[in-house]
């Protein structure tokens, strides 16, 4: 699917800043819209290890689009895992089929890594929460249909945070201008703004005060997913570099005869395999609920994205139409 439906269109999606809805709906037909969502609401019911393998493979076709698909999957999983039966049946089938798309709303202009300090407020009035505040750098923002929003219903700190599902078209929900980026342009990025946005109480995921826990559990899997996307970029980069070495000639022989470049390619392949093993270990730990799962997910995100950045940069192929020049974290151009 990555080779046939994504790679041929990757450059156009990026250059024209296209959100490839139809391609993603084709991916959903293969079960990629709710990979680790339960089958009773339309998901594929696969493991975290399966998910990592799928995202790595898809990223060989387009890292940017796959990274958005991973966020969409995380949102669908959060609703499936923490929602009640009514919420699961309302939202998950359309998300798994990618008839509707989801965005994850945690980051704010004044609270990035310090997520527990978020300021977006939700005041209970009758049978609605009134949302006020804004979220920044939201993947899919403005083009997606469902927003999983972390907001403050209580006092300061993590215990005052709750999770609401906000649907596009809700009065008081608006979006900022589309951010200009040097890559990852197949997924639009905007601010999501709430101005007296009335959200039904029935859209509260879990109980009040559980939002921070929900957010962090979502991000544990999200770290593996993004690391897997970097793996796919690095894997494709290594293959491009290998193929280029076999055809490019200098001083009467192909680059593949250069021992220095042979060693360099071997080092890149070693970094790739070592990174893959760490991601796989973290995925299994998370699936099994092991006590070291959280630290392994964080280690995988830290180590693998850095190593795959290095592999992609070292794979630069100057004369190749699919020039590899930048890191998988910041561009989808292989």
UniProtKB/TrEMBL annotation:
Domain of life (superkingdom): Eukaryota
Cofactor needs: FAD
GO molecular function, one term: acyl-CoA dehydrogenase activity
Statement: the UniProt record of this protein carries the keyword Plastid: no
Gene Ontology annotations for the cellular component aspect, listed alphabetically: mitochondrion
InterPro entries: Acyl-CoA_DH_CS, Acyl-CoA_Oxase/DH_mid-dom, Acyl-CoA_Oxase/DH_mid-dom_sf, AcylCo_DH-like_C, AcylCo_DH/oxidase_C, AcylCoA_DH/ox_N, AcylCoA_DH/ox_N_sf, AcylCoA_DH/oxidase_NM_dom_sf
Entry keywords, A to Z: FAD, Flavoprotein, Oxidoreductase, Transit peptide
Annotated protein name in UniProt: Isobutyryl-CoA dehydrogenase, mitochondrial-like
The organism of origin for this protein: Sinocyclocheilus grahami (Dianchi golden-line fish)
Gene symbol of the encoding locus: LOC107597574
